[in-house]
Design a protein that fits this description.
Helix content is 29%, strand content 24%. It is built from twelve helices and 20 strands. 45% of the residues are buried.
Amino acid sequence: MFWWENNFLKAKEGKLYIGDRKATQIAEEYGTPLYVYSRQQLLSNYRFLLESFSKHTSLETRICYAMKANAHPGLLSALKDEGAWIDAVSPGEVKTALDVGFPGRRILFTGTSVSIQDLKQVFEQKDVIVTIDAHEQLELMKEVRDLLSSSLAIKVAIRWNPGVGRGFHPRVITAGKKSTDGTPIKFGIEEERVIPTFAKAVEYGFKPVGFHQHLGSGWVRQDFQDVMGVVDKMIDKASELQKAGFTVEFLDFGGGFGPQYSEEQEVFPVQDYVESIYQRIAQSNLDIQAIAIEPGKYLVGDVGVLLIRVEYMKTSYGNLFACVNAGTFNTVPRPAIYTQAQHQILNCSNVFSENMEKITVAGNLCETGDVFGKEIPMPVPKKGDILALLCAGAYCRSMASHFNLRGIPEEVIL
């Protein structure tokens, strides 16, 4: 059994199967490039996570799907029916969630650098909880609220920056003073301004109900101790808020953990994380009703596969290229944007061979960084072969573009 096999993907007699069908048959029927999603794998991921929390019945569990990972209506609808919440970062995401059927009370809007128009559109939706990303944002929120109705009841959460962030790449670290490449972190409210922000929110007539943090994306096992250290810090701060007389109905620990992208990756221990959170809350004096988390990649990453076709093979200065009918920016931008991003790539007709060569899978865009994978050990493809890029369910279609005026692939759910 290969490390990447699950209920969705199987290797049978050297061929890749997606569900109960050969990947090559799916490519022939729908064409390539093509995103293929598994509803069953999505439900399996969600139910595993929910079960990890449901062992503890003392608090309500709110699994808030980070819609920015993939907003396909079919995936959203499946999550809605399971009772998921939504983490939305734009008015467009709020509207999409409502259109699919999510009630406003199960939507958290967590925007940054929000505009008057952003706030107006969100405030007009009933029961959406609005996360405050900056102390200064309150002035704008009050201005917009008063334009609509000064008596409008709006529930809010406060997003703090605990001073520590974690992520697989500098561009996805969302807490701390600066990212590891020196970029100042724009998210959240620094620690000493948290209580003044709660106080100002109450003064302006908003109703604080939650306390929120997000450290970054792409945690691995080695991040566990640091992440739990910030969990302790958040619980201490929430206790301080309650002692100061503020209501904290829920703690939102954000997202960060994801699926396995490569064989050598040590995945973040999700169940240990859940158990440790509950233990720490039980040992505290917190009086809260619910715990929220915001998984995106964890829920949909391994739900998707991208199928692409080899147009021809090319050799140049000792490099061997599989030239395919898609570009990274149009289909899977992660490898082009984040240097540490990896996606397993398979030849659907020949998953493994004793004779493996180092193949660079080259896209069709005018950009040197347009490679899906560099010098990947795989059986040498031939013209017309279908390649499968795994873990394409998260931040692939949602980040795709029309760079070079190329198209964005179609999507199909099995």
